[in-house]
Amino acid sequence: MSTTKNTYTFSRRNFLRTSAIAGGGIMIGFNLFTACKPNVKPSVDIENLNFNDFNAFIKIADNGYVTIYSPNPEIGQGVKTSMPMIIAEELDVEWDKVHVVQASLDTKSYKRQLAGGSQSIRLGWDALRQTGATAKQMLVNAAAVKWGVDAATCKASQGVIINENGDKLGYGDVVKEAASLEIPENATLKKPSEFSIIGTNAINVDLDEIVTGKPLFGLDYKEEGMLYASVLRPPAFGQILESFDASEAKKVQGVIDVITIGDKVRSFLDKGKSNWTFKLSGTDKVVVVAENTWAAIKGKKAIQAKWKSNKELENTEYQNDVLNKILDGNKFDIRREDGNVKKAFAQADKVIERTYHSPFLPHNCLEPMNFYANVTDEKVHLAGPVQTPEYAAIVVADMLERDINEIQVDMTRMGGGFGRRLYGDFVYEAAEISDKLKKPVKVISTREDDMTTGIYRPAIKYRIAASIKDGKITGYHLKEAAINDNMYGLIPHFFPAGCIPNFKVSTQNYKSDVTTGAWRAPYTNFLGYAEQSFFDELAEELRKDPVQLRLELLQYVKGTTDERIQYSGERMENTIKLAAEKGNWGNAKEGVYQGFSAYYSHNTHVAEVAEVELKDGLPVVTKVVAAVDCGIVVNPTGAINQVQGGVLDGIGHAMYGDFSFEGGKPINKNFDTYRLIRINETPKVEVHFIQNELSPSGLGEPGLPPAAGAVANAIHKAIGKRLYHQPFEKYLNSEKIEG
Amino acid sequence: MPTYTLKINKKSVNVTADADTPLLWVLRDELNMVGTKFGCGISQCGACTVHADGTAIRSCQLQVSMAQDIEITTIEGLSEKGDHPLQQAWKEVDVPQCGYCQAGQIMTAASFLKDNPNPTEQEIREAMHGNLCRCASYNRIEKAVAIAAEKMS
Questions:
Q1: pLDDT by residue (tens digit) across A483-532?
Q2: Domains along chain A?
Q3: Tens digit of pLDDT for each residue in A245-274?
Q4: Chain B residues 24-63 with CB within 8 Å of chain A
Q5: Which of B18, B45, B140 is facing A366, going by the closest CB pair?
Q6: Binary contact (A295, B18; C-beta < 8 A)
Q7: Alpha helix locations (H) across A148-246?
Q8: What's the rounded Cα separation, in Å, for the pair A579 and A460?
Q9: In Gene Ontology terms, what is one molecular function of this protein (chain A) (predicted)?
Q10: Domains and CATH numbers, chain B
Q11: What is the ipTM of this complex?
């Protein structure tokens, strides 16, 4: 036994959130102040949140089993599995001894408990590793103290610490001592080559519960004495409540009360407290409170309400007209400008200009919006599915004029997010209702509520023009006309920015009464299609292979000193080459037509080859091959699932998503009149990852933006028709094409 | 409100509910069996799929007053230990993303495989097309149904 005096002392001075837990074991909290300082700003504005420090809780039982609290909301993007994997890797435990628990909102212990922008993994990476590595170091130090040896002579692996004499201690044997040690700075991280969990397939941690129907989701959440509330909102955007008659509703069996809400929202807005998650207008709403969901739904149908508006309500034709006028006009914000586009266009051999049109889109999370609130004198308890729990707490505290410390937010698993649950309107409604009733209540939405009172992907039009001179693209001008807002600040610096000497991005919007917001891969979900479809036309014009054209363009951006450029020319090039290779680009079988697309978004580079075949004279997408560079792939099975889902989501909405308004009212109200892609319409999606050791970026969104472009380009090859409008299906069905 | 006797997962249960209450809401609100999900309420999404005498139906369309004398099976009763070949296959393939639709998918598949134990790929795609998956985990659903069919044969 070594006699080296160890330098670690058991002290309470650095005690941090250490507590004995029922059933044995101990919980350690790590307060890591400098763990994560991302050197690149995230690619969307909503992500510009504080993320300087980060905590995670690890609970180690006496028997060595480990509980890891997953800090971020789980919306189907897989972070409840992948974030704990990163901690477990550095902690160095066996993954099958890890139990994952969803953490509640705890702004003192965690930072950026938010699901959005595909940023959880990218921004969590360093801090999660530090958390695991620090805990491991503390466990090693504790064992060293116990043995009376230098910690540097001890090693830990798979939950067991071993010293030079071959003595062994399990993590569970020293966890109590470890928790009271000084927290070491800069614990050593593993090299990627030493990873044994990261890079292996870990199935969804909630899989057992999902396939057996256990309560997991917000709609499954129940508390004793909980009532159900259904909210009647204005049927048209731009309307407010004039009057209502609840006498029939009150006759419905199970209906307890009919109330109105709106005061708290108005006073909140009057105080100027609004933030980006707050999309509620100040209208009164009628709320039916009932003993059960069915009574609440029935009661709401029985309300006779009158609505009014003091201006003309919007139709889709009007919205299209306004957007077209914006594109035809000359009032734009210049978002990026390189060289002199005007001059390039004037000197060109040819200028090609195309306009791309997209409709509004509802999110249609399969779990309709819902939230639980229980407002009492002591505290405000909120529970349910929301992507922005921290904002939920802040807004509710302000709305109800409560101390933020009185707000408790518990997160349930979410039946989809897609951006819809970034906005906490349903949380704020639940809080106001419970505040008024002083009873626990769950706000529930029907599909019709969700689809017709949504926060939609705004309708957008892009007009893209390019100049060609001596067989080269000399100028490029992208104009965006959108509803309510324009593309996020960094998007003008995505591919192909930096590839074309004279380059300009101009944007403008008009303010509509229709509420709009982020929808999976905001802006790029349609911009990716428009630009990648346009490039196919440019390649045709230049008589170049579409892959070759992109690779040539990327040569200009490689090694760029322009710090605004968000993507890497080298990584994009490698991704494009991998997609072309794996997708057998240019070597399609007889009767198979290929289309290519490549796009960078959310810090991830993606390229896709789509294959289309003609069936009964109509083009059918049969296969998509995607190549992805997201750095290290934390959980391959989850990563593949995300990319497959993103690709199919992109194709599904481009093919079928159609949503319009008449007199301010959505025409499409449920899945009988709004078409989502179904299993018999889906191609096989093959996913390949670039192998490297770069820090990981997210995958919830980036698979989506290139998908529709690849499909549109393949359809053009199959039938010779360019598609400028989404949904494609509407424009393809107009005439049957003979194959 | 009237009381109804239902046979759910081989157990007889009494529930008090308005006659027109869909079975879906009786299961979820009255019986705390929340594995059966609400997605659309008009039988378009399949999230609420249960078995009625072994056949997949939409529980949002079956009123409680009409549900007596029917053997109802929900996801909670599909297998005793959560080890139905479909549940196993779902885990092998790691199907879900958000997971919300999956109980309904499994219930549709279970009924389908009983009638057609050796389905072709196209038959699986046709049989499952009534169930929406908003995350589009469709490639994996297709694969898992095929694997379960193999396990059962």
A1: 999 999 999 999 999 999 999 999 999 999 999 999 999 999 999 999 99
A2: 19-212 (3.30.365.10), 218-310+369-444 (3.30.365.10), 319-360+457-732 (3.30.365.10)
A3: 999 999 999 999 999 999 999 999 999 999
A4: 25, 28-30, 32-42, 44-45, 47
A5: B45
A6: yes
A7: 171-179, 207-212
A8: 29
A9: oxidoreductase activity
A10: 3-77 (3.10.20.30), 85-152 (1.10.150.120)
A11: 0.99
